[in-house]
What we know:
Layout: E1 2-9, E2 12-19, H1 21-38, H2 51-81, E3 91-96, E4 103-110, E5 124-130, H3 134-147, E6 150-153, E7 165-173, E8 183-190, E9 212-218, E10 232-246, H4 252-257, H5 263-297, H6 304-315, H7 320-325, H8 327-350, H9 357-370, H10 375-384, H11 386-408, E11 410-416, H12 418-456
Parallel strand pairs: 5-11
Antiparallel strand pairs: 1-2, 2-4, 3-4, 6-10, 7-8, 7-10, 9-10
Helix pairs in contact: 1-2, 3-5, 5-8, 5-12, 6-8, 8-11, 9-10, 9-11, 10-11
Amino acid sequence: MKIDIQSKKGLTTVLSISVDKKSIQKKMEERLSKVKDQVSLKGFRPGKVPSSVIKSQFGKAIYGEVIDQLLKESTTKAIEEKKLKVAGQPKIDLKSFGEGKDLNFELKLDILPDVKLKPLEKISIKEYEIDVENKIVKEKIKELLQQNKDYKEVGDEIKSEKDNQITFDYSATINGDKFEGSEGKGVQIILGKDLFLKNFDKELIGLKKGQEKIINSKLPPNHPKKELADKLALFKCKVIKIQKAIPSKLDDEFAKKMGAKNLIDLENLVKSQISLQYKQTLESITKKKILDELEKIHNFDIPGNLLENEINLISQSQKEEDKKKFKKQNEQAASSRIKIGLVLNEIGEKNKLKVNDEEIKKEIQKQVQSMPGQEKLILDYYQKNPSASQNIKGQIYEDKIIKFIKTKVDLKKIKVNLTEAQKIIDEFTKASSQKISQKESDSQRTKREKSKKISKK
């Protein structure tokens, strides 16, 4: 086999490859020999069919198989021999082939760029640590007390009041006719919350246990059955039980009801939950800023086929008119993703960061534990979808690289309270929205300028 570099332009390399006819003939004979042992033809004993007969009947198909095999083998060998880092699938252009001839073809390859890493120490990044004040924790626990009241049944002669929990049965009709969902048994509502039907609660205030009342009320406009939406229904209600709210006492027993060991443990759990809500968002902001800085300080060309594939991926759910409208934004987003991915991968390879099977299993196990009752479903999904496990591997690998980068950059750890944390999140969200709006404005301006040029012509 002969391999020559035909041309090299930017990240595109074209190799000229030729396989001599003797090598092809040898492969043909090997394949004919295998087929001879397998084929069964009328008039010949198994394994005794002459090669000439097999060649006359199956020669073209066998030649096609041999050429296909040689193309794959020689492509792999050429890439290895020339030590090329290929981006995407190579393109093969057959020049000459045929029985008794050499096989000549060109191999067009998009090559991954040589990513020269810039010093990470020059990057300055802020990482935020949440300081949840005791005042906030106490307010949250107060909310839990309000939301988790106990209820005690009142006497038969006591009338229902706002904030009571009332249990009732109902039977409803529209124009005298029953409808789906027109009957309810043991329905519980808290009077004043207005969670059943609008203004329905107030009609049940002032009733005693065992009393009945007819209530006219409109069904909601978003009723699942469209034909029932906004219809006026007549509800015949009977009060079964009235319960008065008893404020929960803030003690260790209440803490245990909330899943904590004691009151101190409850405070720590609430503090941890509040912190986690903000921590995840702030960590994603820090990560985004790291990625933005990496993109900013690295400059290299991107293989055309990778860019095209990424653009297709980004725009696959867009309508045709949106693909045209957001063409520039899609290209920028695709370019950014690829560039960052190549830089992260280079950092990972240079620093020998790897992901082992045990780490993947642990991550899957975390997902299993977070969804009780669906353990088998999740495990079956990962067993039947190897690509899903690969996605987890990719995420773990990226997290490892980001963690490594944080040890190298100028990382300023800043402690912030919840007000400051919310301000940081709001400013980041606003800046991101403005960036998108600016890109859309730039795109519209470019279109207007093009239109002006065309009209002038």
